[in-house]
Each structure stands twice: as structure tokens, then as C-alpha cells.
Design goal:
The chain has 796 residues and is of the alpha+beta class. Helices cover 22% and strands 27% of the residues. Strands 4, 5, 6, 7, 8, 10, 11, 13, 14, 18 and 19 form an 11-stranded antiparallel beta sheet that branches. The chain has an 8-stranded parallel barrel with strand order 20-21-22-25-26-27-28-29, surrounded by 4 helices. Helix 1 packs across helix 2 and helix 11 packs parallel to helix 12. It starts with a strand and ends with a strand. The relative contact order is 0.08.
């Protein structure tokens, strides 16, 4: 970027590095040389604007013929001729809406600062050195191998209002963040109609915006739209949360970008409310990307002396396609968003009782499940909804965080002690932001519920939302949950939020501030989350909002993982988890093995497939282990043992999308990896299969082996009669006896190869069963079957 004579900041380049590796090393030693180089590059890349554009507005006579419409800008206001999507829209006391922000100063620092009202990225280090840049025409190049911060202050030419644009640079993961602060230095009120977090202008058109959309239990569907003219938008308009309908993570790329090659820009927002991202192209062949708080339904009254903070936006770039971008974004989320004791710790294997019991449980039925889980080696038992108040269904009890002693006569403490005695930790479900009308809390404080006085209220899941913009409500939740979390040996909390917003209104806000409600809600929520996670740093918190709603970086700033979807069907989860993988690492995604037929789709998928897919996430089970057969219980125990062995790779490895139905994670040091292949549709006489890897070290040697699983003889149906000396009725008594006493081993694939061979050619796998015979090396690979393959470095 460079400061123009007018005081506007021209955006020159964001993308592939302008420096070779040799130049970079040299410039680390010589900052003056680096500055001179970038000044020269700015002259090469800047817009050569020499003539007034037809039907355009000239900014000012003294800067003739500059037309802002033709300029790639670092930020844009409204009213001075740039008719593209603005970053800032204000209304002043006299009714004017024109704003004209010009460069005042810039400060570079080695210290990363946090936003005061919203979560933001952080760095573990910082040496607190500050350098003022004054009003130099070109920003010098401060090249470093550690995180740094740049704050640019812009001042409106005619009004006493300042805009601070905050940039944080994280070289370790090739990521930059941006946020905005508006400061009212005048003696008049200002109405903020729009303050976005990020604006990025490109000197070309034809980008495609890729965004992720869906609905409850069917999240993160990938959609791409090319923008040669007009505008493409990804937004959550009024749901009040980041949403399963539209996730705030987006990508920009050219149409020919692939998983491994081509320019790819990744964007996200550290925010959980309504969001807005847009890619537009204008008649001068420029593109603009903006993102931030959804302007529709938003307004903020900024009184004299006050500051308003916009959420932090995240951007990363890779010339190695979608995969390269994803891995940079994953590293950023792991290192600079997720925080606390659990950031770098392996997450426990859990069992949740929800789909096993729903609301119908008591202490004994829970302990029966827990005992089976302990036998299988599961580490954490989670008690879901229904343990408190008069909560026997979803019509009552929310807000009354007092244990139901009819179900749990020994209380939470007694149950936790019994779970702990089995060798497992204890976890609990809560939904603190909600209240039922049939609750003691609502009867005591009806004014705390979000609803418009004198009008009918619309509900979701028979519940209402508590007004988190109110400090007394925040204080109540902090106090009530502090008592709950302190009442027993609790190691894990699942924090749910099961409805979107309607009838927005707060009795504490005056009419002229009512459009501030949604943003104030999240400021309050973040305060509550911060206080509780600070008070209970040992607890592993998992976010949830009707599954994949509110899966965003705002929540991940407090909770290290989020329940990815209420859909536990493994085949659906292949697509859902693949969608999340573009912007979120595996160890932020909750993923469980559930019963079949699946409770959301009635689809029956093999137990091994359910495990294989769920293993690429924060892994657990959500079924009644006591109702499984002995054979299935052994399978579960084997799965648990396998996951523990490879857990670090699953949770902290680099993620690769091999193709639509193949995933792979590779340890950071390239010493180990796990890959999944999934059979979407089995076809006869199609037994050729190769597993081509990504990410292994070319110069390392690896042992390759499949996760070997047994085959139940019943899987062959009446084909048993091609081998049996007597006729065996399918699923009859004799068939069952044979199946209990005769187990077939699955195929065993083993190989030793270099990483270069595995990455370049792949390993040829044993053949599938194709209808013409079955042997000990034949893979039974039916529709919906999956296999895991492990790669271990061969030590000398």
C-alpha cells in the first residue's frame, strides 16, 4: 500500500510474495534496502491514472484528475465518488452522509494488542518495541519472522472522527488480520450505519467467491460463483448467529484454481453474529472484497469521546491452491485463535448419552452406559440435556440450573464421583442463553426474555432467548454456572444454543439504540464466556448451536472445539466435515459415532465407516453401548485403542483433501500419517484401486498398512452355500451359529515405499470383491464401506 498525495491509501498488492527467498533473507538484515525495493515495486504496480474518467467524479481540483472510482483503495467511505461497496457509512448530526478519511499516521509494533469488547487473535510473544512512521508517502517494509502489528490512523477531512485500521501479521502461518476502530473526537453524536472489518481491492476481475451454505443437520455445502460484473454475496441476514445457513468463512480464487495449484485467498471473521461478505466488480475492471458485521439491521449511536470496535477479519493467501490456503488457515486457528490449557492438548474420547436416552434417563441407566464405555477405554462421559429443573422434555426448565434429584438422587457430585470411580472424567450439557416460559427463572424475571412488549412472540424449540445485552442477565448466568461448575468434578462442558433470533427488543435500550441490540448481545455473551473459561481453565468447553450454527472463530476464541452438526450419519458427515476442512482444523470439529439406523436419516452405515469418518475430528460415541452385540463391543474397544495410538496425528496433523471421498492427515514432522478412502458406490469387476498421498516427506521411507478389520460371514448372505457342505438358510439359526464361531479376517495391505513414490504414484491396493471370488487378500468394499491406512516412518 502507499499513501497518495491526496491522503488516500492506495492498495497495491496482496498475494504472492514480491520477494524471492534470497531477497527475503537479505532484507531481514537490511530494512533500508527492503524499503527502497518496495518503493520501486509500488511505482511499477500502482494505477497510472492520468485522465478524468467519463461520467465520473473528480475527487478534488487540486488532485485532478483523480477519480476514486478507478482506484484500488485500502478503505473507502461514502460520498466522494467511489460508488463501489463502502467499508464505512456514517450519518452526522446535520444529516450528511459524506465521509472523507485521509491518512494521519501509522505505528508499527512488535506487540500484538487485543480488542477491548470482542475476541481477537493473539500471539504468545512480543517485545513491545514501537516505531512511529509519521506521514511518509510509502509505508516502509518491516520484514520480520515474528508477529507484528500495524495501526494506521485515518482522519475525516472535515469532521473530528478517526478511523484506526489495525493489521496483525503472523508470518508463521502466512496470515494477516484486520480490524477497525471508529473514534468520535467531536462534540456531536454520530450514527454508524456500516463499519466493516476488511476491504481488499484487486486490479482484475473474474474471481470466484466460494462460500458454504446449508441448513440444520446439512451444513457446509460448498458453492462457487464467478463475478465478472455486479456482486456476489455471502451473508447471514437476520438469524442473529453466524449460522448453518451461511458460514462466515469464504474463499476467493480464479476458476482454474485446484486443490494443489493456483491463487487462493481465504477469509474469515472473528465474530458470531450476523455477518456480511461481498465480492463485486465494476466497470473499470477492478474487484473489491469486503467483510464484517451485516449492515442490514445494524446501527450504532457513537456519542462524543466513544469508540466502536468492528470484529477482526482474517485473510490468508496461497499459490498452492485450496489445500495450501487451508493448511495456513488451520495453523492460524490452532495457534492464534484457540487458546488456554486445551489448545495443544490431545482431546479425550467421549461418550454422550443424548441419542441413547434423550430426556428419558435416571442415574442407574446412565451408569450402565458409563460402565460399558469404561470397559471400551472411553475417557469421558457426558450427560446431555434433561438433568436440571423440571426438564423432562423441551417445553420446560431452561434457565433453572438446579439438579433434578428425581433423576439424579446423588446430585451431580455423586454421579461425577461414580463416573470418576470407573476411570472416566465427567462432562455436562448446558444451554445458558435460553429460557422456557415454563421455568422459575421466567416467572421471576419475565423482563429478561427477548420479546417485543405488547406483541405476540415467536419461539423456536418452545424456548426464548435471554437478553445478554443486559449486565444483570450476564451476571446471573455467570453466577448460576459458576455454582454448577463448582458443584462436582466437571472436566467438560457442552454449551448449546438451539434457536435463532426473532422479535429483537431489549427493555434496557432506548428506541434510538434498538438496532444495537444484536451486537450488544454478543459483547455480553463474550464477556460471559471469557469470565467462565478464565474461572475454570481446566474444563474443556465445546460449543454447539443446533449443531453447525455458530461454528465460527468468535466461539473458538473461548471454546477449543465445536459440535460440527447434529447429523451423525457418516456419509453426510463426509461432505459436512469436508466443507469445514477448507477453513477449520480437524481438532475444532466435534464428531461422534452414533447408532443405526441413523436418527437423522434412517441410513444404516457400517460401524467401521462411522468410526473412520468420526476419527477425523474430536472423536466420541453417541449411542447405547449396552445394546450393542459382543462383537460390536469388541469393535468399539478396538477403535478406541486405534484412535488413541494415532490421536495426535488425527487432531494436530496437516489435513489434505485427496479427492471427494478421501482424506489424509500428516504429522507436522512428517513421521506418520493416516488416510481414509470411502466407497460411495460399489460396482462389480472394478477392483483396481490406488491410494495416492499428499504431504509425506519425499526423502523418508514409510511402512504402509491398512487398519485390518474382521468380516462377519453374514455379510456374504446366501453365498455361504458355495462353501458350506450343507444348505444354510440365510439369517437362520445355523447361519447365526456359524457367524458366532467363525470369523473371517479382512484383507491385509502392507507395503514399504518412499514418500516420493507414495506422493507421486501411490500404493496399489489389494483388489475389491467383484463377484467372482473371495480370498484372504480380497477387500470387502461395499457401498458405504471405508478403510483407514496408516503410514509410519521407517527408522534406520
Amino acid at each position: 500500500m502507499q499513501v497518495l498525495p491526496s491522503g488516500h491509501i492506495e492498495h497495491i498488492h496482496y498475494g504472492a510474495s514480491l520477494l524471492s527467498e534470497i531477497q527475503y533473507e537479505e532484507f531481514l538484515k537490511n530494512q533500508e534496502q527492503a524499503s527502497e525495493f518496495l518503493i520501486d515495486m509500488a511505482k511499477v504496480l500502482e494505477i497510472k491514472h492520468k485522465n478524468e474518467g467519463g461520467n465520473m467524479v473528480v475527487y478534488a481540483p487540486e488532485y485532478y484528475p483523480m477519480c476514486l472510482e478507478t482506484m484500488p483503495l485500502e478503505m473507502s467511505g461514502f460520498g466522494k465518488g467511489d460508488i463501489r461497496e463502502p467499508m464505512v457509512e456514517l450519518t452526522f448530526k446535520d444529516g450528511s452522509t459524506t465521509c472523507d478519511f485521509l491518512f494521519e499516521n501509522a505505528v508499527v509494533s512488535d506487540e500484538i494488542t487485543a480488542l477491548e469488547t470482542l475476541p481477537s487473535s493473539y500471539d504468545d510473544g512480543g517485545i513491545s518495541a514501537v516505531a512511529g512512521l509519521g506521514t511518509d508517502a510509502v509505508m516502509p517494509a518491516y520484514i520480520a519472522d515474528h508477529a507484528m502489528q500495524l495501526v494506521i490512523t485515518m482522519k475525516d477531512k472535515h469532521k473530528d472522527v478517526r478511523l484506526k485500521m489495525i493489521y496483525k501479521v503472523y508470518p508463521d502461518c502466512n496470515t494477516i488480520t484486520r480490524s477497525s476502530k471508529l473514534i468520535n473526537d467531536s462534540d456531536e453524536e454520530i450514527h454508524i450505519d456500516r463499519l466493516l472489518s476488511n476491504q481488499l481491492d484487486f486490479q482484475q476481475i473474474g474471481f470466484q467467491l466460494t462460500s458454504f451454505h446449508g441448513r440444520w443437520a446439512d451444513e457446509m455445502g460448498k458453492t462457487s460463483s464467478v463475478c465478472n460484473a455486479g456482486k456476489v454475496v455471502c451473508e447471514e441476514l437476520s438469524a442473529g448467529e453466524s449460522g448453518s445457513r451461511s458460514n462466515p468463512f469464504t474463499m476467493l480464487s480464479m476458476p482454474d484454481t485446484t486443490e494443489t495449484a493456483g491463487d487462493c485467498f481465504g477469509f474469515n471473521l472473528v465474530y458470531s453474529g450476523n455477518h456480511y461478505s461481498a465480492l463485486s466488480s465494476n466497470g473499470t475492471f477492478l474487484s473489491r472484497f469486503v467483510s464484517g458485521i451485516q449492515p442490514v439491521g445494524f446501527e450504532w449511536l457513537l456519542t462524543p469521546g466513544e469508540t466502536f470496535e468492528a470484529p477482526e477479519a482474517v485473510m490468508t493467501y496461497s499459490k498452492k491452491g485450496f489445500g495450501g490456503m487451508s493448511r495456513s488457515m488451520h495453523d492460524f486457528v490452532r495457534k492464534h485463535i484457540v487458546r488456554g490449557e486445551w489448545r495443544d492438548k490431545e482431546r479425550p474420547i467421549l461418550i454422550n448419552n443424548w441419542e441413547a436416552t434423550y430426556f428419558n434417563f435416571n442415574q442407574n441407566s446412565l451408569l450402565r452406559i458409563a460402565k460399558e464405555a469404561a470397559k471400551a477405554g472411553i475417557e469421558l462421559f457426558v450427560l446431555d440435556d434433561g438433568w436440571f429443573g423440571a426438564r423432562n422434555d423441551d417445553h420446560a426448565g431452561l434457565g433453572d440450573w438446579v439438579v433434578n434429584t428425581k433423576k439424579l438422587p446423588d446430585g451431580l457430585s455423586g454421579l461425577a464421583d461414580k463416573i470418576n470411580a470407573l476411570g472416566m472424567n465427567f462432562g455436562l450439557w448446558v444451554e445458558p442463553e435460553m429460557v422456557n416460559e415454563n421455568s422459575d427463572l421466567f416467572r421471576a424475571h419475565p423482563e429478561w426474555a427477548v420479546r417485543t412488549p405488547g406483541r405476540d412472540h415467536s419461539v423456536g424449540r418452545t424456548q426464548m432467548i435471554l437478553d445478554m445485552s443486559r449486565k444483570d442477565v450476564q451476571d446471573y448466568i455467570i453466577d448460576a454456572l459458576t455454582k454448577v461448575f463448582s458443584s462436582a468434578n466437571i472436566s467438560y462442558i457442552k454449551w448449546d444454543m438451539n434457536r435463532i433470533f426473532s422479535d429483537r427488543f431489549s427493555l434496557e435500550l432506548p428506541a434510538e439504540r434498538m438496532k444495537e441490540f444484536q451486537h450488544r448481545y454478543y459483547i455480553g455473551l463474550y464477556r460471559v464466556m471469557n469470565e467462565l473459561t478464565t474461572k475454570f481453565p481446566h474444563i474443556l468447553f465445546e460449543g454447539c448451536s443446533a449443531g453447525g450454527n455458530r461454528f465460527d472463530l468468535g466461539i473458538l476464541s473461548y471454546f477449543p472445539q465445536i459440535w460440527a452438526s447434529d447429523d451423525t450419519d457418516a456419509v453426510c458427515r463426509m461432505d459436512i466435515q469436508r466443507g469445514y476442512s477448507y477453513g477449520y482444523p480437524t481438532n475444532t470439529q466435534g464428531a461422534h459415532v452414533s447408532a443405526v439406523p441413523n436418527h437423522q436419516t434412517l441410513h444404516t452405515v457400517p460401524l467401521e465407516t462411522r468410526f473412520s469418518v468420526a476419527a477425523f475430528g474430536c472423536f466420541g460415541y453417541e449411542l447405547n453401548l449396552g445394546e450393542l452385540s459382543d462383537e460390536q463391543k469388541k469393535q468399539v474397544a478396538d477403535q478406541v485403542e486405534f484412535y488413541k495410538q494415532w490421536r495426535k496425528v488425527f487432531q494436530f496433523g496437516d489435513f489434505y483433501r485427496l479427492d471427494k471421498y478421501r482424506f489424509m492427515v500428516v504429522a507436522k514432522d512428517k513421521s506418520a500419517a493416516v488416510a481414509l478412502i470411502f466407497q460411495k458406490e460399489s460396482r462389480p469387476n472394478k477392483d483396481y484401486l490406488a491410494l495416492r498421498t499428499m504431504g509425506l516427506a519425499d526423502d523418508k521411507i514409510y511402512e504402509v498398512a491398512n487398519r485390518q478389520v474382521g468380516v462377519n460371514i453374514k455379510a456374504f448372505g446366501s453365498l455361504i452355500n458355495t462353501m458350506a457342505p450343507i444348505h444354510v438358510k440365510q439369517n437362520g439359526i445355523i447361519h447365526g451359529i456359524i457367524a458366532r464361531h467363525y470369523k473371517m479376517n479382512g484383507e491385509k495391505d502392507e507395503a514399504i515405499a518412499t514418500g516420493s513414490v507414495l506422493n507421486g504414484c501411490g500404493v496399489r491396493l489389494n483388489p475389491d470383491y467383484g463377484g467372482t471370488g473371495y480370498g484372504e487378500d480380497t477387500r470387502m468394499f461395499r457401498t458405504d464401506d471405508a478403510r483407514l491406512y496408516v503410514f509410519a516412518e521407517v527408522s534406520e
